[in-house]
Amino acid sequence: MKADKIILGVLGGVAVGALLGVLFAPEKGDKTRNKIMNKSNDYADELKGKLDTLLGTITQKYEKIWKEGESLVSEGKSKFYDAKNEIKNTNI
After folding, report:
1. Over pLDDT 70: what percentage of the chain?
2. How distant, in Å, are the alpha carbons of 39, 59, 74 from that of 69?
3. CA 42 to mean position of chain CA atoms
4. How far apart are CA 36 and CA 30, in angstroms?
5. DSSP one-letter code for 24
6. HSE of 65 in the Cβ direction (CA atoms, 13 Å)?
7. Which contiguous run of DSSP H or E holds residue 55?
8. What's the pLDDT at 80?
9. Is residue 16 a contact partner of residue 43, using CB atoms and an 8 Å limit?
10. pLDDT of amino acid 60
């Protein structure tokens, strides 16, 4: 998770820098507001893409762990029933 925080920090810093650069640029208010809106949309799209990728990775890892857990439970049940049957056969 440390890398994620670094990425978000860098993106936030870039966004603030771009915003300040646009705000202090010598242009009319309409143009400045449009630039801010366009940059904000660009950064939002970029951030959304990164978060979607992160969510996909987390989902894949979760599914893998879930399948491994199901496999372990199944294996444990199998060994339990084998041991139970072995004990039954020994007592007979």
Report:
1. 91
2. 45, 15, 9
3. 20
4. 10
5. T
6. 6
7. helix 29-91
8. 92
9. no
10. 92
Asked if residues 52 and 81 have their Cβ atoms less than 8 Å apart, the reply is no
pLDDT at 36: 79
Identity at 64, one-letter amino acid code: K
Q: Which of 43, 66, 61 is nearest to 1 (CA)?
A: 61
CB atoms within 10 A of CB 7: 13
For 19, 34, 36, the CA distances from 41, given in Å and listed in that order, are: 12, 10, 9
Angle between helix 2-23 and 29-91 (nearest 10): 170
Token pair recorded at residue 52: 């979607």
Asked whether 80 and 88 are in contact (CB, 8 A), the reply is no
